[in-house]
Design a protein that fits this description.
heterodimer, A: 3 domains, B: about 180 residues, four-stranded antiparallel beta sheet, about 45% strand
Amino acid sequence: MNPVFDRFVANIVRQTDCNVEEREELYDELMSHLECAYSEERENGASEEEAVQIAMKKFGSEQEVGKQIQQAMYPYRRLMMIILSIASLLYVYGVYAAQLFMEGDAHIPWLVSGVVISTALLLVTLRPISRMNRRLWMNGLLLIHLIVFLYGLLIIPGVNPPYSLIFGIMAVLILLLSAVLVYRTTIYDFPSPRQPNQKDAKRVHYINISTGFLIVFVSLFFLWAFLLFAGNSSSFLFILLIPTAVWIISYSAQMGLLARGKRSAAYTVTTLQTVVIIALACFWVFVVV
Amino acid sequence: MKRTMLGILVGITVITIIFVVLGYKYDKSDAEKQQGKSGVYDVAADGTIAYVSFANGIAGLFISSDDRLPVVELPVDQTILDLSYSKDGTILAYVVAAKDFEEQSGSTVYLLNTETREEIKTFSTKGLITDLAFDPADPNRLLYLQADSFTNYSPIASKAPHDYDVHSYHFANGITKKHTDMKA
C-alpha cells in the first residue's frame, strides 16, 4: 500500500461522521479507486511518483472530497451542528452578560455548563470520533444541551425587554434545532443495526422521542415552579422523576421487543403509553384545572 | 485542523474565564439590589410625606420635610410593611417585620412623634401586620390588618399571608381586639 495514498484517503475519511466499520468500507473503496487511477497512469507511461500525483489530482483535494462525502451521507448535518453550537455559545454569553449587568446576577454554573456542552458539540462536529457510539454520545450531548438551555429559557424573564424577547426567540430556535437533531441522530443518521425492521423502529422512535420531550418539559416546568415558589426540598421532587423513569423503561421495552421481532407487543406498549398520557392530560385539563 | 481546534478551544476558554471573573466582580447580593424608594408611604394633613427608601438593602424611614437622613434605620434583615399618619400628623405609626418572613416570626408596631422624632415600641404580634390606619373616630385607636397564617397553599405555591382579620390596638389601655373572623 502506497503511504501517500494511505495518508490522502485517511484524511478524507476522517472528515465524515462514519463509525469504524463504515470508515473502513469507505477507506477500501476510495483506495481501490485511487489504485485503479494509479495503474492507468502507469500503463500510460508515467513514472511511479508522477502516477501517484496525477491519481490524487484527478481525485480532487482531500478537504473538498471529504466535505462532499459527508454532505452526501448526512446532508446538512454538520452545518446544523455548527449552527447549533455557535448559536448556543453566543446565547450563553449574551444571557449571562445581560443577567450580570442588568440584574446583578452571575449565573456562573449555568455559564460554564452551557459553554462546556456547546464546545463539546462543536468539537465533536469538527473532529468526529469514529470509535465512540455516535448515537449514544451524540444524543447524550444533545439531551444535556436541551436541559441546560431549558434552564436558560427559564432565567430569561429576569432580563429587561426587549432583550428578553430577543433571547426568548433565540432560545426557542436553539431548543427546536437541538430537538430536530435528536430526531435526526436517532432515526435517520445513525439508526440502530439491531432493528430488523427499520420502518417500525422509525415509527416507534418518533412517538417515543416526542413523548419524551413532552414528559421532560412538563417535569422540568413543575420542578422549576416548585423550586421557585416553594424553595425547599421534599419528597415531591422525587415524584417528578417518576414519569421520566417510566418513559425510559417503556421506550427501552418497546425497542427491545422490536429488536426481537415482537412487533405486536411493541406496538401494544406504545399504544398503552400514549393512552395513559392522553388520559392524564385530559384529567389535568378537565378535572384539576 | 488541529491548530484551528486549539485556537477555538483557547478562545472559548479565555472568553469564559473573563466572564467568570466579571461575574465574581459584579454579582450583587439581594441586599445590594434593594435600592431606592419603596411603595410604602403616607401623606400627612399638612402635605408632609413619610416614605420608606432602601440603601443597600437597609430600610430607612424618611420624612419629606427633611429627607437628608432617615428618621429610622432598620437592620438589613428587617423592613417596614406599612405606615400611617395620625389625623393631626403628629404621630406616625409604622410596622416592622422580617424581610424573610416566616410563620410566627411576628411583626412590631412603633409610634414616632414627628416633632420630637422620639419613637416608642407599641406592641408585637405573632402574625403579619400588613396595613395600619388610625381610627378616624378615636385618635387613640390604631386599626390594623393581620394575617395569622403564612404558608403555601400547595407544594408549588410560594408562601403567602392569609387568614386576614381586622384588629385594633388602644394606646390608652394597651388592649388589642379582633373585630372580624373571616375564617369562621
